[in-house]
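Board notes (copied after class):
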Amino acid sequence: MRITRSVAGRRRRTAFVATTGLTVTALLLTGCGGSSDSDKGADADGNITLTVADFGQFGYKEAGLFEKYHELNPKITVKEDTTAEEKNYYPKLLQQLNSGSGLADVQGIEVGRIKEIVDTKADSFADLSKAIGVDEWVSWKAKQATTPDGAVIGAGTDIGPMSLCYNRELFEKAGLPTDRAEVAKLTEGGWEDFLALGEQFKKKAPEGTYFMDSASAMFNAVVSSSPEQYYDASGKPIYDKSASVEQGWKLAAEAASKKLTQGLAQFEDPWQAALRKGTIATVVCPAWMAGQISTYAGDANKGKWDITSAPGDTSANWGGSFLAVPKSGKNVAEATKLVKWLTAPEQQAAVFKAIGVFPSNQGAYDLPDVKNATLPYFNDAPIGQIYADGAKSIPEAVLGPKDGVIKDSISTQINNMEQRGTSPDDAWDAAVRTIDKAIG
């Protein structure tokens, strides 16, 4: 979960997914054996403690996976060290990599950082290419963590296929369709159609309500649906020339000028309060966002929300992470086995069931807990189908080492257009100054 809540803001909550239960047999099928002779971290009795450092909410605790792994491997105990905000986690990870000490057996890496790690720190991590079954992942996910010589330094956890969450009650009051198929049809032409729908909403919208929460979220969705975003294939920053950035900025400026947005920085207290009060009609919705909405909108708004496909015919990816194994660890072989198990289809399905983040391993898509998943909070929206369909049309994007910095800088200035009335030209100039200073 990321971008306008920043690369740093992976704050996920349970999305209350209704699915069938995973069987113990399915979990056992992917269990590992005992400790390896190549690991040096075992005590005199052969017991090993594996440490996993991550950020936000990866869902392993909620899905009970570490306890299950211990049941399958009695000599292995897994301890998780979680940092609430990725913006605090990542500088510490870089410091540990530079010093060569303090690293966990397994380290989480955010998608907005993976390119920088691949380019500058790949030699610090074990090659997982022969351990994790790279072909099981959506192809673009695996390539994000692959070095030029073919080493894979991270196993994909989740992805964030895009959808659109909308408040059915507000749509009805504004005289708009509420059926998810009809809503999808109104925006099938793309994000321009989405803004046109916003203008229709505004004509009859209840007083004090807004069509969208944040134009920066829409900007991110527009850019993320393009293969060329902030860098070109040679690794050169092109954010100031990118067609997708230009389109996203233009649409964000239009949304701000027409007062279609409440201008809220996502995940901050005012945003949470707006969801609770029911003043927002739509939220750009990567898979993990549903959990945010259900948490902060609360029980009083259950059933008032729904989910449909994202505008246009090309989906986008917003978010996702990786699990990597530092070479310097004392338990590299066992850590690799743990990573393989955690990212196998059955375990990714269990995490999806627990907190609603969508698997990157395609083998999970046909499992009942994914394929048949619905969200009762969102009018029983068939999220397994919606997200899987979205995942199939996500383009293979070029990532850059400072994607997160660029996104956050632009988002800040979009927020200034919304809240302070900053002109689009002044806001863009300010974003460029910040970005150029950051990327050198």
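Comment from the instructor: Residues 1-15, 20-38 have pLDDT under 50 and may be disordered. The chain is about 40% helix and 15% strand.
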